[in-house]
Amino acid sequence: MRKWLIITGTILFILVGCRNQDETKDEGQKEETPTEETENDSDKKDAHSSVQHMDYKAEVAPDFSAEELTKDPAGNWVTNGGNIYNGRYSPLEKIDTSNVKNLKVEWVTSLGSGSEFKYSGEATPLVYDGVMFTITGANVVQALDAKTGEIIWEYTPQIADGLDTVCCGWTSRGVALGNGLVFVGLLDARLIALDQKTGELVWETQVAEWEKGYTITSAPLFYDGKVYTGIAGGEYGIRGFLAAYDAEMGRELWRTYTLPAPGEEGSETWPEDSNSAITGGAPIWQTPAVDPELGMIYFATGNTSPDLDGSNREGDNLYSDSVLALDADTGDYQWHFQEVHHDIWDMDPANPVVLFDVEMDGQMKKGIAQAGKTGWVYILDRTNGEPLIGIEEKPVPQDDRQKTSPTQPFPIGDNFVPQSISEEDIKNDLPEDFEGKVGDMFTPFWDEPMTIKPSPQGGANWPPSAYNPNTEMFYVLGNDNYFAYAHYAEDEANKFVEGKEWIGSIWQPVENTPSRGTVTAIDIKTNKIVWQKNWDSIAYSGILTTKGNLVFTGHNDGRIIAYDATTGDQVWEFMTDAGANAPPITYEVDGKQYISIFSAGNTLAGSKHGDKIYTFSLEGEYASLEDIPEDAINTSPVHKDTDNDNSEGVTESDGGEVAEQGLKLYENNCLACHGAEGVGGHNGPNIENATLSDEELVEQIKKGGGSMPKFEDILSEEEINALVEYLKTLMNKDE
């Protein structure tokens, strides 16, 4: 069995798995006391850098009313999901299926940071009164003229030295806006507010301790004078929570934990003698949604900890893997629906929830949809959490050692990715020397490798879905690939150490097998597929839909693509210079409609990295990359030609000067998947187990393999050799 791990680990040198999850709360899991004091002293502000390049001539955002925040985004795009329903639908229709073929580049801006391989570009820009606000994977925040792309101001944080607890690539999914402030969650678990006109720091609050595994990758949400943020870190044995902060000062107003304390409702779904209330996980990876009329805030929670080992956490393990509703004003529990009981496969819901209103059976229904890693869309009544379309509890395979749940929820409707491995799949997709077992979704595993679908990448992962009220269709991206699981009770991964990854078992993609993606339109009234497009790579960006009957999304190969929202016919595409792994948006300035996307690549998608925002219009000038003159690209005066590494190294090398150079390359290219010192990091195999020669290491780094990207076009020969020298110090630790 160890041989299986070592062989697979050496071939898949940089695992590009995907873990994106959410956090929620539990009834009674609310703290009235704030966390640490808001930090406004001059010493803290000195650690931040704000530079203004142009006068800010636009209006500042107001203290948005509920009506303004629930309105479909037309001229502006003021929340991460377009509005606080998270629907990513725009009523703009000047660009439609009849003329979208005429879209050309209006402007391009090189943001100048976050292009190293450890970073991922996943941000949704915001737009208000002709100004765009965006953030890179390096947490650099910038305000741009939305008509020209010229940079108005830039803010650079000082990320905590030694930060090494960020799962799955350094990223930010966006910022929030309101009351003249830009709100930002930082990777080291701080929440900050910047002056909208200058980018200067106004306040700063420490939400949690990154040293214990907490981080923030989601965009905050501004609503009713509050800023809401969840916390990530389910792989580190943290206690998930959602917290609300006063938008003016950063003072914590309430905190609701997603794990029940002993004696609280839900605690009976965990063993009595466990530390589950403190180390059980259930993080929050995405931006919540709000229904002001009902007074509820909604989100989904992530995986349990330890993620893949259920042997010591008998029960359903609430409120992990659940959609949760809280009172938006107080944080009090309202309802929950658990999508996966006692999860041991990392099938937690990572996709943002979407609120919608639709007529069903002659009555208007208030719905909420969540696209799961399971490959199903869970469609619920958002007033009470009951299914709007049936969801049945069905028996599933059992393994007493894993304390598996006897049943799992099966939504009525279509799955948008395969949930089993057929004989044809084995023949066509699996290598001839494949010797492991295969199973269906919910098949348990123990000490022999078990390959199932969907994988931890999904189904649906973090890339946001969208709902179009005109077509009454829900649009979702899906992933279809092969992952193998195995359990080792004696493995170091099964031992909890604060601040260290705690997975509990072994998982990794099956080498030499295909990864595929889907773009799917689902009838919101029936949960049935209307149309589906199949890709030859995972779908890892997000979706925008418009009244112009269009669906826009990005592709790993760099394309932004438009489909007819009704039929699924492709009607336009444009090839950018890096992986288009962020959700597109649309907005209007002076009567002109624009489409924008952040094209910067993604660590876990293994796509080419970059640093540019591309913005298109019907009056745009450039039809292809080759048409764009270099001097027409806006560039950052601050970050141009810099590596923007705002934190110090987290490891030390004892292999000499060349190995020290390799350590820096490791941190920027490998750490996101392998963790500090390569000890079986964030979905990447343990490098200490590798037995490759120098020549084999060089070849593996250059050519990649399986889910590992190739680095021959990213790193020079000298850099690859330096990286090999550092990797040898990790592989030879015990010699």
From TrEMBL:
Residues 657-731 form the Cytochrome c domain. It holds the Pfam family PQQ. It comes from Ornithinibacillus xuwenensis. This is PQQ-binding-like beta-propeller repeat protein. InterPro entries: Cyt_c-like_dom, Cyt_c-like_dom_sf, PQQ_b-propeller_rpt, PQQ_rpt_dom, Quinoprotein_ADH-like_sf. Its cofactor is pyrroloquinoline quinone. Residues 22-50, 395-418, 633-656 are annotated as: Disordered. Belongs to the bacterial PQQ dehydrogenase family.
